[in-house]
Design a protein that fits this description.
Blueprint (H helix, E strand, L loop, with lengths): L6 E7 L12 H6 L4 E7 L6 H10 L3 H4 L3 H4 L13 H8 L5 E5 L3 H5 L7 E4 L3 H15 L3 E6 L1 H9 L4 H23 L6 E7 L4 E2 L5 E2 L5 H4 E7 L6 E2 L7 H9 L32 H4 L16
Parallel strand pairs: 1-5, 1-6, 2-10, 3-4, 3-5
Antiparallel strand pairs: 2-9, 6-9, 7-8
Helix pairs in contact: 7-9, 8-9
This protein binds zinc ion.
Amino acid sequence: MSGKYSHVIVIGVDGAGSWFREADTPNFDAIFENGAVTYNALSSNPTISAECWGSMLIGVGPEVHGLTNGIVSSVPYDVKSPFPSLFRRIREAYPDAVLGSFCDWNPITHGIVENNIGVSHDTAPDTELTPVVCNYISENKPDFLFVHFDSVDGAGHRSGYGLPDFIQRIHEVDKLIGDVHTAVRDAGMLDETLFIVIADHGGANDENCKGSHGGWTDGEKYVTFAATGKGINKTELDEMNIRDLAAIVLYAMGISLPVFDENGWTSQIPEGLFTDYEGEYRDISHLTGAAPRISKVHHESELV
Ligand SMILES: [Zn+2]
């Protein structure tokens, strides 16, 4: 590995929107005390899981990757796609890289990440998944690890986004984030790790406090992003898109970024994130601010 970091760990919190700001999150607060944080990262449109995680893990918008919840739940990601996932880009740059994808919602691993490129994986509800993840970290010291927690989104659908049960669930997931971070520290990796927490979308409630998402209201489209590690500024980021996760991870791992293309790769490094990166950030709001669509296809937690 010749990147700036030996390890990049990304924890995705489904449906959390910007509500990390309101929840009691002592672990998140401590981990990112000296990091870069925003509660205004812009989601992908429509604000639905496959569209959003696809944007983050592939670095292109939903109109380019074309993934939906129905597709990722039933079709393995094309190993020859002209838009490879982060995992494939890392695998091609570092054939020996240790890669893991541990997802509460397993279609991410099978429908957004290419199968058979040597990515360790497992799936379970997030409280059960966390000890598996911690054990994997201590035994394998992964170069790139993606972890997906789904229970916050489940609470939003059941009890309303931003309402007390939902906020309490973020508090519970904060403990899981703390457990993963502790595992990174205990494995002796922390000084060489870029540690990231990101949400895919938020949600909105109907008059009966039942939650949903897929539209483009503030509660759905603004999400939490936080990063910490050597070379990350202590700052509140002004502007970023969730799809920028792909560029951030590649840059951190010393892999050159694909050329920006409105019909393809639109993932960028947010201004002010890395101490040594000075590139300009392009406004892509015309790509993300299209008329909202509402999907009737929800993933498993969304059916609870
Ligand atoms: Zn989601």
